[in-house]
């Protein structure tokens, strides 16, 4: 690649172009370029004879097939990704010398991979789990990887315990059960005996762990990093991605059903949104603390089980990421992308967060086995857009053909090149932090408070969110076979909130704790999804119709919903165009056999004059399930009769009926924007 290649929002796309191949309309060849005359039959000794080993085309084809798979990631195996660009709003020059954060309006190509943590590649996407949110910035100074999650804290404080955590949450080794689930004995035994998990568990059992969409969840860098400016002054920093669509989730019963109905729900949602031009957008924010204020808080800012409450340390929005292109090949891009928190650029550095320190080792280590050797940086998706030169050579998967006789530093034969670069000219320089202390296997006393922020999270939840957390505890612990483990967990979380722990104990049949509670009364409104942005954009609306519907009115409503940014889909008993009593005939998008209410955000039912028992039964189940999941339901014409038949009151929260089309659309739009109607008290 030319050293003069311009680095901008299209540069990565241009770089990948030389690797893209469209086989349509091409002649079939071997991997060596030899044209193939026959691809139906192997070479045999006679028509009924044995296959001959000299059939090199058969051997190449079969050998390649036998080696098509690489080891899946130990964690984050189930993932999906997209390309995009990051645009800077505001210069960060006072804080960091990172070039991609200097000039407002500058654009940097990015690649983002979302994932679940615990499940295998074949698991469902609506598991209760943390979601990975990893972003690769292809900057002119090299690749910068922000490898984060949709939850701002983690289960453990020190990376040495990471293998233990994952062993505990993975399927139990004696029977390989359960897949992609934390609701089993070993995980909760780990929790009860490692109380630093308390804060993360509150997030894990909240609605954050079952998001509606990748497009509707926050992203966090989790760790505390450093910004370093041109003068060498450092600030502590945490990173945030805030979705423009707001933060929204499913409900647990809905999530379980989606896993059965469409285990690819999240990836399909992301893919379809990008294909239709509804590009996901995330604003990029930073929390910044001056070095001299490191010890000004009632928690250790390097503790990965702690947040910096946004009310205490505001999030400064400095840019926006837009995902605008799907991958061309899931294996070549999504599977082969290699992230590493140690991939940084000048102006971004590490802290002594012990979990981060361990990640700086483990990510490279895992890529070596997964991608077959040290040259994974040469895979197209991992290649920087800037030139790279060094004395590293050979190894599995080497693409670069290095010219010349020199491959060492220092040298005279090549005038001591590749040469090092002074920090003032862009060479990376580690921040010079003064270090003192004895070599010990220990943890700072400032890391020992495990419950205060767990209580802060609980205090900050709305009433429905608290109910969901308790229900999640009861589900998870209800799957645990050991009464002793159940009791340990209940006693542990009495330290977060005594009333919560007592309610859980009552539901799972263990002894209610008599001691515990917390004196923390602080609330952080930023932690509740109820305070998130509300939007109707890209919300999927199921429109239930049968023959004899009023095509004039229904088509008008559908078009108005589309103008508001919603995505209505016509659902009926069969495909084709439905007969109307008047107005245009609408094309049916799906039938009751191919979709379900859990795949939609709201339901509008108009029915039809000819609606029969089959339609009433199928549409009725669809509506009742949507109602039980607190979703908006709109009804006009014969749809109102179906509401009455189902004993769904037209005055129930989020149920919209109107004679006036304009009024109906207005009220229904507001209902969709609200997302859920928890006051119904069912689900």
From TrEMBL:
Entry-linked SMART domains: Catalase
Pfam families: Catalase, Catalase-rel, Catalase_C
GO molecular function, a single term: catalase activity
Catalytic reaction equation(s): 2 H2O2 = O2 + 2 H2O
EC numbers on record: 1.11.1.6
Cited PROSITE patterns: CATALASE_1, CATALASE_2, CATALASE_3
Position(s), cross-link 3'-histidyl-3-tyrosine (His-Tyr): 340-363
Keyword Iron part of the UniProt annotation: yes
All copies of domain Catalase core, residue ranges: 29-417
Cofactor(s), names only, from the UniProt record: heme
Function, in words: Decomposes hydrogen peroxide into water and oxygen; serves to protect cells from the toxic effects of hydrogen peroxide.
Name by which UniProt lists this protein: Catalase
């Amino acid at each position: 690649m030319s050293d003069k290649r311009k680095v901008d929002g299209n540069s990565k796309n241009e770089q990948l172009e030389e690797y893209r191949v469209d086989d349509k309309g091409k002649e079939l060849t071997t991997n060596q370029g030899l044209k193939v005359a026959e691809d139906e039959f192997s070479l045999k000794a006679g028509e009924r004879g044995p296959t001959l080993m000299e059939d090199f085309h058969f051997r190449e084809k079969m050998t390649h097939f036998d080696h098509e798979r690489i080891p899946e990631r130990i964690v984050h195996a189930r993932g999906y990704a997209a390309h995009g660009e990051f645009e800077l709003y505001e210069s960060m020059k006072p804080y960091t010398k990172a070039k991609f954060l200097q000039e407002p309006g500058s654009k940097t190509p990015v690649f983002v991979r979302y994932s679940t943590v615990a499940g295998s590649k074949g698991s469902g996407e609506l598991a209760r789990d943390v979601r990975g949110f990893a972003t690769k910035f292809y900057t002119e100074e090299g690749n910068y990887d922000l490898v984060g999650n949709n939850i701002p804290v983690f289960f453990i404080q020190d990376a040495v315990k990471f293998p233990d955590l994952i062993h505990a949450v993975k399927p139990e080794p004696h029977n390989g059960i359960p897949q992609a689930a934390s609701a089993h004995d070993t995980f909760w035994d780990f929790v009860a005996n490692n109380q630093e998990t308390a804060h993360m568990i509150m997030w894990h059992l909240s609605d954050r762990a079952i998001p509606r969409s990748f497009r509707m969840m926050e992203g966090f860098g989790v760790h505390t990093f450093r910004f370093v400016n041109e003068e060498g002054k450092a600030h502590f920093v945490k990173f945030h991605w805030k979705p423009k669509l707001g933060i929204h989730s499913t409900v647990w019963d809905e999530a379980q059903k989606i896993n059965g109905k469409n285990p690819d729900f999240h990836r399909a949602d992301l893919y379809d949104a990008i294909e239709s031009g509804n590009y996901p957008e995330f604003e990029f924010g930073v929390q910044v603390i001056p070095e001299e204020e490191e010890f000004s808080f009632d928690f250790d800012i390097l503790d990965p089980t702690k947040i910096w409450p946004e009310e205490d340390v505001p999030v400064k929005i400095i840019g926006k990421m837009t995902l605008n292109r799907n991958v061309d090949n899931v294996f070549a891009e999504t599977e082969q992308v290699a992230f590493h928190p140690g991939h940084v650029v000048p102006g971004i550095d590490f802290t002594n967060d012990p979990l981060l320190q361990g990640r700086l080792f483990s990510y490279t280590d895992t890529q070596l086995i997964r991608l077959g050797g040290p040259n994974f940086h040469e895979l197209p998706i991992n290649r920087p857009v800037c030139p790279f030169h060094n004395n590293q050579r050979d190894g599995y998967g080497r693409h670069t053909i290095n010219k010349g006789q020199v491959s060492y530093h220092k040298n005279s034969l090549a005038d001591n090149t590749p040469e090092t670069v002074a920090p003032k000219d862009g060479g990376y320089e580690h921040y010079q932090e003064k270090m003192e202390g004895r070599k010990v296997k220990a943890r700072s006393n400032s890391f020992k408070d495990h419950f205060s922020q767990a209580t802060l999270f609980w205090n900050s939840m709305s009433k429905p969110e608290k109910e969901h957390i308790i229900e999640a505890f009861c589900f998870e612990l209800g799957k645990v076979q050991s009464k002793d483990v159940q009791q340990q967990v209940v006693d542990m979380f009495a330290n977060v909130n005594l009333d919560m722990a007592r309610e859980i104990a009552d539901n799972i049949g263990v002894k209610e704790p008599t001691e515990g509670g917390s004196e923390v009364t602080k609330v952080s409104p930023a932690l509740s999804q109820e305070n998130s942005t509300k939007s109707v954009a890209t919300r999927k609306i199921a429109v239930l119709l049968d023959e004899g519907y009023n095509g004039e009115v229904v088509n008008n409503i559908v078009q108005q919903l589309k103008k508001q940014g919603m995505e209505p889909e016509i659902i009926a008993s069969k495909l084709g165009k439905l007969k109307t009593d008047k107005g245009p005939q609408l094309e049916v998008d799906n039938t009751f056999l191919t979709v379900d209410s859990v795949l939609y955000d709201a339901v509008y039912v108009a029915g039809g004059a000819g609606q029969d028992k089959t339609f009433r039964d199928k549409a009725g189940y669809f509506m009742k399930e949507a109602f039980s999941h607190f979703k908006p339901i709109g009804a006009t014409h014969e749809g109102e009769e179906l509401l009455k038949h189902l004993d769904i009151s037209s005055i129930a929260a989020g149920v919209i009926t109107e004679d006036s089309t304009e009024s109906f659309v207005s009220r229904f739009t507001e209902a969709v924007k609200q997302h859920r109607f928890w006051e119904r008290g069912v689900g």
